[in-house]
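Worked example 2:
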Amino acid sequence: MTIKTPKSVLTFIETCTNLQQLKQIHAKSIISSLSYTQFIITKIIGSFLSHECLDYAKQVFDQTQEPDGFTYNAMIKAYSSSQTPLVAISIYNGMRARQNSLGDNYTYPFVFKACGSQFAVEKGKEVHGVVVRIGYELDGFLQSSLLNFYMVCGETGNAQKVFDEFGLKDVVFWNALITGYARQGMVLDAFWFFKKMLEVKEVRPNEGTMMGLIAACIESKNLKLGREIHGYMMKGVGLRKGVKLESALINLYVKCGCLDGARKLFDKIPEKNTVVWNSLICGYCQIGCLNEVVELLREMHLSNLKPDRFTISSVVSACAHMGAFNLGNRVHRFAEENGIWDIFIGTALIDMYAKCGFIEAAREVFNQMNEKNVASWNAVLSGYASHGQAESAIELFSEMRESGFRPDSITFLAVLHACAHSGLVENGKWYFDLMVKYYMIPPRVEHYGCMVDLLGRAGLLQEAKVLIKMMAVEPNAMVWGALLSACSIHGNTEIAEWAAHQMFESNAMDAGSYVILANLYASARRFDRVKAVREMMGGKGIFKSRGCSMIEIGDVVHEFVVADKMHPRSEEIYLVLDELSKKLKMAGYVPLLALDEEG
């Protein structure tokens, strides 16, 4: 590579195909003293941004003495859509301070986007003031970005004011308001403005309008409004009904529990592609209708369409939730045989095998993955934790750090869970401190719950109580439940009563906590308190949820609840259960029925 003139630099940049080549071009231009002209610097920075190499582009930008407006805009735009949008705001601040530049109408939409993503309301309002002073109130794109910023930050009043004060509103402007109300959960407001939009002859709803309204109906589970929107789409003049909208409508019906509506709409679509099939399959997966998923996969295969990565990962995740090992294993083989694979499928398979009780198979999938991310490591760690294999979890955690992966809050949750179930108190304390002090990860209520469980199981109830008092977040039912369970195990009614009092004060008492407290009193032979707890439960209308279990036989998942007689073979099932009960009694088994010791 020979670089002698500015023109040759530009030629190499335009023909560059990868990041490594681009870095070589940049190095050569520096050596040849050709990287100091503003035009070439702008081109180099733009190329790094197009390769999504923001950090390197930022280094070049920071070394540029006088970046022009185009370069500032490019950097602000790139960072406003990145995982670090605060950098976009910082670059904007630098532009104002360094050059006393006001920017232009291409600057501010992305500054507002960055402010919105960080909920930086005051900064956004300050920038709004600048826009007013320099006279950009008539720029439609800029004003719709401002409206969207206010909506994202929950400032609906200010957003409405921007909308009302703007003159000629196009469909983008209307969409910003309608989808903004929809995202805030104000579905009726969104729908009201949709109807007002229909009254404006110059503006017609487009795909963006309908997608926003459908998303709002899904979030609020408002099937009635969803049907109205569907009706408009059926007769809407000039509205293109593509795959995206049809898939969204199917998802709407599924999420609102109207499976017949979803299936009818699906059956009416003449030419279904993989996206349409996925919308129904994934919808069924999300609500646990695995038997319907099996049938849909069969139909999809008969229509000569193959599932894609999205289908596979969704079905595997549903199998994990339902404990459907046989189906999950078949889908795994299908994916391997057809070359359908990515990091998300691998992670879903790890989770599925672990939740179905096959932790060795989960680890085997993990070991075979050429590419891993933090979620992949977390899936195996969580599997080891739930299987009580603390030593394996700790060993894998060390391996994760040595491989250069940074643990996140979920990683530590899995490790703490493993320590709690294996009684590794000192290890648990060490990992908790590592998370907070070294990795600077603020503990969530789930982390505190694990620590309370860890200390409680070891009988360190006073220490667990002190930890709860020092929590940086409000304890929830999980934390109190862990302490109550520990008190029940160790027979400590004093701390149990303190915990129960705190739960009553914060309305955190749930059915399970009442049962634990009653059992604790029963163990202490304080039957007057057992009666009082039962009366409180009855007075508040609280009942313990009936137990539920599932079993997979021949790709069909059978679900049972306590005293269930709905299954077609329930008589045979109860005969077998009676026989098992007799054998258990003969073997000397006595069930723990502390709650039923009296009355």
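Residues 570-586 form the longest helix (17 residues). Residues 594-599 have pLDDT under 50 and may be disordered.
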